[in-house]
Amino acid sequence: MTVTTLRLRQAPSLRLDLRGLNPAALAGLSAADIGHLRLPHGKGSLPLAECFEVALGDEPDALRLEGDLSRCDRVGWLLAGGRIDVIGPVGDYAGGCMSAGALHVRGDARDLAACEMAGGTLTIEGSLGDFAASTQPGSMDGMRGGTLIVRGNAGARFGDRMRRGTALVFGDAGDFIASRMVAGTIAVGGRCGSHPAYGMRRGSLVFAGHAPEVPATFVPAGAEAPVFWQLLARDVQRHGGPFAALAARRMSRHLGDGSAAGKGEILLAPATI
Asked: Where residue 91 falls among pLDDT bands split at 50, 70, 90?
């Protein structure tokens, strides 16, 4: 079976909004019908065919996007099923508010990837910008479920106000990772910037590559919780990379953020601990 493919003709002059481009929306449409769809472009809109070449496939639950989509925002927005593969970088809000299905980006993503994500799997093969797995501007709830996998690095405020789900960064993360986190699991394979877990309420922040300086508002745990650690570590290590064999490592556990009456935890499990 072949997959419906949209190949970018040239970079748009203004930012292009791709919300609504998903397998379910395109199912049953002809190539001409797809080409006539209007895409928000700046303050106006334009036909999809002005920006993309359309190659129709017969696999109804899959969509492929090709080209430099770094000026194209909301790829996979509200995705509720099926699969979207992107060959190239994408703009802001990639996978935002998705609830099911899979979005695979073989490139970088900009800011606010996986914001308020509730389900499904978002994989970024490159790096991404700030506020991933966090809230939309003006909202109170961040990522609410699903799995976010970042093979490269992540920017600042990764997982801000995160409420549920699993988010993995294979590389380094920026400042304020897991800030104001409410629940869920974040794991980092590299280093992080300043102020990790600032204002953390609950949830787990795992460092598998480098043990940062634990904030003064976190205290060593009185118990190591070995059963919980084995369950969490085995769930994370199945993704491989810096998390492989995580369950076999010795772990150091710290609780906080005490300045916010938090009951979260920072788990240090680098290979050399």
From this structure: very high
